[in-house]
């Protein structure tokens, strides 16, 4: 079973995403901030990381950079309320595999993950 790590400061968003991913057949781990997410990432080496961008302690962009330093080919998605094209392009340049806006669409999420993880 593929493991997905969710990094998001919103408990509500983590719950919604976790429920959707479990329903899709994934094993899910959660972190409430970037620092905790990086700790869990180092321990678990998940198949995919899904991160928010707007978090208080460390931005999603910082999380992406740090995880990519550890594992350059890590598969990562962003799910964020930040819909600015410049931010989306910045994340793509950092090497993310997909970008979804909040509230996320389950079908879109499932399609991206199936293409990404097989």
How are the SSEs placed, and which strands pair?
Blueprint: E1 3-7, H1 11-23, E2 27-31, H2 34-44, E3 48-51, H3 60-70, E4 75-80, H4 85-93, E5 98-101, H5 106-117
Parallel strand pairs: 1-2, 1-3, 3-4, 4-5
Helix pairs in contact: 2-3
Rg on CA atoms, Å? 13 Å
Mean pLDDT: 95
Number of domains: 1
What's the total helix number? 5
CATH-defined fold name: Rossmann fold
Give the class from helix and strand content and strand pairing. alpha/beta
Going by CATH, the architecture would be 3-Layer(aba) Sandwich
Q: What percentage of the residues does DSSP assign to strands (E)? A: 15-25%
Written account of the structure:
This protein starts with a strand and ends with a helix. The protein is globular, with a radius of gyration of 13 Å. The protein has one domain: Rossmann fold, CATH 3.40.50.2300. It is built from 5 helices and 5 strands. With 118 residues, the protein is an alpha/beta fold. The chain has helices spanning 11-23, 34-44, 60-70, 85-93, 106-117, and strands at 3-7, 27-31, 48-51, 75-80, 98-101. It has a 5-stranded parallel sheet with strand order 2-1-3-4-5, sandwiched between helices.
